[in-house]
Design brief:
Blueprint lengths: L3 E2 L61 E5 L11 E4 L2 E4 L3 E9 L3 E5 L5 E12 L6 E5 L2 E6 L4 E6 L13 E5 L2 E6 L2 E6 L3 E5 L2 E4 L3 E6 L4 E3 L2 E4 L3 E6 L4 E3 L14 E4 L3 E6 L4 E3 L3 E3 L3 E6 L2 E5 L2 E4 L3 E6 L2 E5 L1 E4 L3 E6 L4 E3 L24 E4 L3 E6 L4 E3 L2 E4 L3 E5 L9 E3 L3 E3 L3 E6 L15 E10 L3 E5 L4 E5 L5 E7 L8 E6 L2 E6 L4 E2 L19 E2 L38
Parallel strand pairs: 2-5, 4-6, 5-7, 6-8, 7-9, 7-10, 8-11, 9-12, 10-13, 11-14, 12-15, 13-16, 14-17, 15-18, 16-19, 17-20, 18-21, 19-22, 20-23, 21-24, 22-25, 23-26, 24-27, 25-28, 26-29, 27-30, 28-31, 29-32, 30-33, 31-34, 32-35, 33-36, 34-37, 35-38, 36-39, 37-40, 41-47
Antiparallel strand pairs: 1-43, 3-4, 40-44, 41-44, 42-43, 42-45, 45-46, 46-48
């Protein structure tokens, strides 16, 4: 899509499949606090300093004072009484710092200390496989810090189904019943042929390192939370890539439990379910993401909040979903088989496998999509933007390539739809098309075309000067355009598909959808705009494009570009 606006030229520009390692996120004046306690009043109240402690961010260790454990299939060794070695099973019994190096083809590290103990476990080229249980099992401690030593390559794995060793359901290559932080600058490879990659039954924090995780189930999971400050992640998971699920069937999830917070990092996620999934909220403050998911790219039962970052959801059933979806910044591209952005309530099991949802999504005044910044490109075969409640747009640049079937619309909301700023374009099938409604202070026009169009749609003012131009990559017979340059009282000429429409903005909102009073949704009514019968002079009428199959995903194409620049998706 190439777009030209008087001052704003704005379409996303980045190579989504190329990832570069960035430096650590900067956290200054961190207090040594553990939990984010101030989430009840909303995402804006989160104090980032409460997400990570000083020690979470500290990769250092004193080698001369640490207990050294040498791993070997012929017999591991350690000269400290705080470590018990029995064959391949190594038990750490006291608080302190421990350095692990060497190989165990069949063995296990167990941390079983007082419940007030804090331990640092340094992996220094450690390779551990435990076929039927966790290679690293934190049975009891207050908090464990796993540090990946600089320049080291570490590998933990399991190869067979998990077998119970005690009353705990150990089902991950790294399994912790207590708080777990992984930091450092080395690398860690996790191969989980069965079960999960890394699990904490409390908080899971990662503040650095390079990770290659392949798991039959979830790759990263923290029951209370997953908090990531930085790191480079390549994840291939049978279920969710990153998951935090505190909810139960009988109790509501506490506001400060079951959430994912990401401050930065590089992520390549291929997931058999959701890319990121939380029973409370997902907040992305920054980072670079390449997500291919069989279900949702990003899913929150509560709030899905995007503040910054470069996010490419290259495959999904639905792109970003939450009871509320709020986007204040970032470069976002979404390819969705169903909805691109979806605000709905309840737990989601919505993918095309035919599974029933735990709680049906219903119209809900608490469901809201808010866009106040960022650059967003959505390519959806279902609804481009779908809110079971309301939609508010106050900034940013949003381009929606909607469906080619009349059962869905590029824009779909059940409550209030209001635009007060930004650039917003939505093209697609006209059968369910919607415009913004009352309360909008920025001009918006929805024009229904008499036939399918392809190619550029351009808008000129009454003097003939171009105000806006864009090139949807999919065919369309309706287009909604709202920019700060569309003003009430002015007259514009829209050229699309080789035909022209005169648009007189007698009100801020011009035109509505193609279903007269359809489903009681605001912004719908009769066909608007009078199309000229003949194309402009010098232009040939478009050929009949015929019918195309609807509902399926299409291969990536030209997502849009400023003049003279290519866009890569």
């Amino acid at each position: 899509m190439s777009c030209r606006i008087k001052i704003i030229s704005g379409c996303l520009l980045f190579a989504a499949y190329v990832f570069l390692i960035t430096g650590c996120a900067s956290f200054e004046n961190l207090e040594d606090k553990k939990d984010a306690k101030d989430t009840e009043s909303g995402l804006d109240s989160i104090d980032v300093s409460e997400m990570f402690t000083n020690r979470d961010m500290d990769f250092s260790y004193e080698e001369q004072n640490a207990v050294k454990i040498l791993l070997s299939d012929e017999g591991s060794s350690c000269d400290s009484g705080n470590v018990d070695i029995s064959g391949g099973r190594i038990r750490i019994l006291k608080e302190g710092s421990y350095i692990l190096s060497g190989n165990l083809a069949e063995g296990q590290i167990i941390i079983d200390t007082e419940d007030t103990a804090k331990l640092q476990l340094v992996l220094d080229n450690a390779d551990i496989n435990c076929s039927t249980s966790a290679a690293l099992y934190v049975k009891q401690a207050d908090k464990v810090f796993v540090t990946l030593a600089e320049g080291t390559e570490n590998h933990l794995s399991n190869r067979e189904e998990f077998v119970a060793v005690d009353e705990n359901n150990v089902d991950a290559v790294i399994f912790s019943r207590d708080d777990l932080t992984i930091n450092g600058s080395g690398s860690l490879t996790i191969d989980a042929a069965y079960g999960h990659g890394i699990v904490s039954k409390d908080d899971l924090a990662i503040t650095g390192g390079i990770y290659q995780i392949t798991s039959a189930s979830h790759a990263l999971s923290g029951k209370d939370s997953v908090r990531i400050a930085d790191g480079n992640f390549r994840i291939s998971s049978g279920k969710d890539g990153i998951q935090s699920d505190y909810g139960t069937e009988t109790e509501e999830t506490p506001a400060d439990k079951g959430f994912i917070y990401v401050a930065g990092g590089e992520f390549q996620i291929t997931a058999g379910d959701d890319g990121l999934q939380a029973s409370s909220f997902v907040q992305i403050a920054d980072g670079r993401y390449q997500i291919e998911a069989e279900d949702d790219g990003i899913h929150a039962d509560g709030e899905a909040y995007i503040h910054s970052g470069e996010i490419t959801i290259a495959k999904s059933y639905e792109g970003i979903e939450g009871q509320t979806v709020e986007i204040t910044g970032g470069n976002i591209q979404i390819l969705a088989e169903d909805d691109g952005l979806n605000a709905a309530g309840g737990r989601d099991m919505s993918n095309f496998t035919g599974e029933e949802r735990e709680e049906p999504f219903a119209s809900d005044e608490n469901c809201v999509i808010q866009i106040s910044g960022g650059s967003i490109v959505i390519r959806a075969s279902g609804d481009g933007i779908d809110s079971n409640g309301s939609l508010y747009v106050s900034g940013g640049e949003t381009y929606v390539y909607g469906p080619e079937n009349d059962g869905n619309g590029a824009l779909d909301y059940a409550g209030e739809g209001r635009i007060t700023g930004g650039v917003f374009v939505a093209s697609g099938a006209g059968g369910m098309a919607q415009n913004f409604g009352e309360g909008s202070s920025q001009g918006a026009m929805l024009v229904m075309l008499p036939e399918w169009a392809e190619g550029t749609a351009s808008l000129a003012d009454s003097s003939g000067s171009e105000v806006f131009s864009c090139t949807p990559e999919k065919r369309y017979n309706s287009i909604l355009i709202s920019t700060p340059d569309i003003r009430e009282g002015e007259t514009y000429i829209l050229t699309a598909g080789g035909r022209q429409t005169t648009v007189e903005m007698t009100e801020a909102i011009y035109g509505s959808g193609g279903m007269e009073g359809g489903m009681g949704r605001p912004g719908q009514g009769g066909i608007s705009g009078s199309m000229e019968e003949q194309p402009p002079e010098g232009m040939e009428p478009p050929e009949d494009m015929g019918e195309r199959p609807s509902g399926g995903m299409e291969p990536p194409g030209n997502m849009g570009k400023p003049a003279g620049k290519e866009k890569i998706f």
